[in-house]
Amino acid sequence: MTTPGSQKCATCGGLIGHGSRFCPRCGAPTPDDVVAEEILLPGSRRVRVSADSLSLRELLAIVESGVFYWRQRLAESEGVARTEAAAALQDLSRILDSLAQQLVAGRETVRITSRLPSMRNAQRACAICGRGNRSNAKFCIACGAALRPGNRATPPPPPEIRVTVAARSDVGMVRKINEDTYYSGEFTTVDGSIGTLLLVADGMGGHQSGEVASQLAAETVKMVLGQGLSQEVPSDDAGWHALLRHAVLTANERIYQQSRSQAGRSMGTTLTIALITERRAHIAHVGDSRAYLINAAGVGEEHGTWVQLTSDHSLVARLVDIGQLTPEQARIHPQRNMIYRSLGTDPNLEVDLFSQALALGDTLLLCSDGLDTHVEDAEIAQIVLEEVSEIRACEDLIALANQRGGKDNISVVIARIRA
């Protein structure tokens, strides 16, 4: 069975992970074809976006839908909200002009220029390019070079680990209602093993509908996972992914149906889940809440001590990907909160699913966008690494976000892997 994001090698039939350029089993180059995802636009239009490139014409449709949204806001708003809408329209006009010029020049697609940094290197490093590979790989997934046989001696058993967790949420300095829902706690499986569940959901909808949506998502996920793990424990990553997908899709259906039963009161929520069992974290993600992996010993090639594990399902994130916005501009962009994937807004939902190996010293941090709007990624990592107490780390992060404006609800969940 193939896992989400994987494909079969056309030469040997082995599984190739997402982003691999060469088969780790036979060394054959992977096909150029990539799986595309759909973005739902106003009016039920759908746009397909590939993992490595974007169609300029389809991106044009996304930006045009944003123009339509902000024109409505401009007509309906006053004061600061009207100024924000005008600024958004000005930015989008610049982007539309850039896209139009590229189309006139005959360009139809643009390759994504900045991707998330790679996660922790696997056990076997390639002598040619330095990329990490699985312990049983024969050829490098990045450059295709043959890998030398590794040490076949039986490795010592890994040390025992424990997971310490903390979570906090705050309404912020502007909002009157906290529409975030968070959870951190242990769960027990049918075979008696114990794991840890982390969850952040950021509700949307106003008039308390967002609060209802995020709470319903959390309650449903906990119920479905509890029922599933009381009957059977998944034996591999694919099994955990299937269980998580079922939980998220069930939550999406419940929120969607409740929204339809309340005329004129649409609701939705982001959802980021991390299930920690043994030495792996199984993650499900929809929206623009985030999951980070932080370790003083290093976790990624680009940023060193931290890596953002999840991808934001937002318009500005896509514009950063293709170089239309810088990460700094995206942080303060008026359309930052326009997400194209959330629970409760559509009966069909695509869920990001993946697993991450964990090591001593790792910290998993989940947060709503009320944190990363005001606190930069490197600052988040620094506070987590400098503060020994998980509770105080959560409180320090929330205090800093509020100090810088606290424009949204702020939720932080931290789990640290200790000996």
Task: Give a description of the structure.
The protein has 419 residues and is an alpha+beta fold. It has two domains: 53-111; 162-418, PPM-type phosphatase domain (Phosphatase 2c, domain 1, 4-Layer Sandwich), CATH 3.60.40.10. Helix content is 32%, strand content 23%. A hairpin with a 2-residue loop joins strand 13 (271-277) and strand 14 (280-286). Helix 1 (56-76) packs antiparallel against helix 2 and helix 8 packs antiparallel against helix 9.
User: Whole-number radius of gyration?
Assistant: 22 Å
Structural class: alpha+beta
Percent range of helical residues: 25-40%
| Poorly predicted runs | 1-5, 32-47, 112-121, 150-155
Distance between the termini: 34 Å
The CATH architecture of the largest domain can be given as 4-Layer Sandwich
> According to CATH, what is the class of the largest domain?
Alpha Beta
Main sheet properties: 6 strands, antiparallel
List the helices and strands and how they pair.
Layout: E1 7-8, E2 15-16, E3 37-40, E4 46-49, E5 53-55, H1 56-76, H2 79-104, E6 109-111, E7 124-125, E8 132-133, E9 162-170, E10 180-188, E11 194-204, H3 209-229, H4 237-261, E12 268-269, E13 271-277, E14 280-286, E15 290-294, E16 306-308, H5 315-321, H6 327-332, E17 352-357, E18 363-367, H7 369-372, H8 377-386, H9 390-403, E19 410-418
Antiparallel strand pairs: 1-2, 3-4, 5-6, 7-8, 9-19, 10-11, 11-12, 11-13, 13-14, 14-17, 15-16, 15-18, 18-19
Helix pairs in contact: 1-2, 3-4, 8-9
